Amino acid sequence: MRLIVCFIFAGMLAKPCAAQAVSPLDVCTILEGPLRLSGTLIAVRGIARSANGLTVGSDTCPTRIVLDKVAFRNEIAIEEATGGDVPFIADKTSFADLSAALAKLNPASQYVSATFVGVFETREPLRDLVAGHGLTNGYGYMGRSPGQLILREVRDILVAAKPPAPQIHSVCELLADPLSFDGKLVAVKGSLRAYQGWWLYDDQCQSKFTVQGHSFENLITVTSPTDLVRVHDVPFDTDDDSVALVAKAFGGNTSTQPRVLATFVGVFETREELNLVSRNGASRGFGHLGAAPAQLLLRECREVTT
Hints:
The chain has 306 residues and is of the alpha+beta class.
């Protein structure tokens, strides 16, 4: 009789029996075939982030969903269940525990992982995730998540130290021989400028990056791993919680341009054929108006000082 009751309760998504029966999946496994899990109760474990709405994600997925050249983040947006379409409401206690862990987090050196239990949803067909003209119709912040979880509870919350950052380079070091760093994960420290995007720069370099007689400023533009003009595909997404440190350093107003020094970690990119960077004396680099000879696909911010 108890087994029958548990089976019935599981169909109703009741917490006592179903919670023990759901084994956690990782984010990558879910996003490899999201339609097959849409509408089902699942448990998913991954990195919890909250700067732009609560998400659970992974920085190790070998691929990501790309539709019409639009790349989605390897993350699942979290929506707190309030009843309605699902026969449960979110466990306020477990949700509060997660919120407390995230509030105490030092995002420059720590991360939070957790297991989220709820009903997974995505668009069917997946093509409906794209709104056209590079815009998305996904879930969460700016529709950049390919699925969402209607949250019932959070389990096994863990705060851990991030792995050590790669060797730190200056802007000058990277631009002195950019092709040798192309496609590599690097840490770069420089002054940060915020105008039409973010730019790392160094005004102490001994020379400027020059191609076919055209000299670029010593700039590295900072962009998202899902940027349409990315050269390489990378397994990670930007850690928005760590990037929030930059906004704090600017005091919420980038127009005042205080001097900010930042150490960013990401994949460095330049053009493999350097003659493609400049054409007819006009800049064809990266960032706004192609002003930079290289860009960084940002994974995280490790340090910000003013």
